[in-house]
């Protein structure tokens, strides 16, 4: 079944919100064999979306990435999940999502050093969705 409208997403990552990414890292390495792909610290000044992330992948490199995320300036509730969606046209996705009842939690930003345009949306029930569009490193 295809998505309605202009959105044809893939889901390359799932983010678990945690107050202690290092503790969860030990758990997922030990129990499930995940390994660290990279670490990201993005203060995101002027917003409460500053983050610390540890990006993991399964030992056999299948499936989506698991990201252990700690917000730097907002609460980190246990059990919090952020769905990660990669799309070809983030602006069209925003417009379509808003018309379907979503809200923008963090406005669209271009993060050249990470190679993405990114927006945080909330679905009609308040669940966070991080929507990214890949961009050229040159801008």
Task: Kindly describe this structure.
This protein is of the alpha+beta class and 139 residues long. The protein has one domain (10-134): Roll (2,3-Dihydroxybiphenyl 1,2-Dioxygenase, domain 1), CATH 3.10.180. It has helices at residues 21-32, 90-99, and strands at 10-17, 35-42, 51-57, 65-71, 81-86, 103-111, 116-122, 128-134. It has an eight-stranded mixed sheet, with helices on one face. The model has no long low-confidence stretch (mean pLDDT 89).
Write a brief structural summary.
With 139 residues, the protein is α+β, with helices and mostly antiparallel strands. The chain is 16% helix and 42% strand.
Task: Supply the key terms.
139 residues, 2,3-Dihydroxybiphenyl 1,2-Dioxygenase, domain 1, 8-stranded mixed β-sheet
Topology readout:
Blueprint: E1 10-17, H1 21-32, E2 35-42, E3 51-57, E4 65-71, E5 81-86, H2 90-99, E6 103-111, E7 116-122, E8 128-134
Parallel strand pairs: 1-4, 5-8
Antiparallel strand pairs: 1-5, 2-3, 3-4, 6-7, 7-8
CATH class: Alpha Beta
What structural class do helix, strand and pairing data support? alpha+beta
Number of helices: 2
Q: What is the rounded distance between the termini?
A: 34 Å
User: Could you report the average pLDDT, rounded to the nearest whole number?
Assistant: 89
* Poorly predicted runs of 5 or more residues: none
Major sheet, described briefly?
A: 8 strands, mixed
Determine the CATH superfamily. 2,3-Dihydroxybiphenyl 1,2-Dioxygenase, domain 1
Widest sheet: strand ordering? 2-3-4-1-5-8-7-6
Element order: H for helix, E for strand: EHEEEEHEEE
Task: Return the CATH topology.
Answer: 2,3-Dihydroxybiphenyl 1,2-Dioxygenase, domain 1
Q: Architecture, according to CATH?
A: Roll
Counting DSSP E segments of at least 2 residues, the number of strands comes to: 8
Radius of gyration: 15 Å
Query: What spatial form do the alpha-carbon principal axes imply?
Result: globular
How large a portion of the residues is in β-strands, by DSSP E?
A: 35-45%
Domain unit count: 1
Classify the helix fraction into a percent range: 10-25%
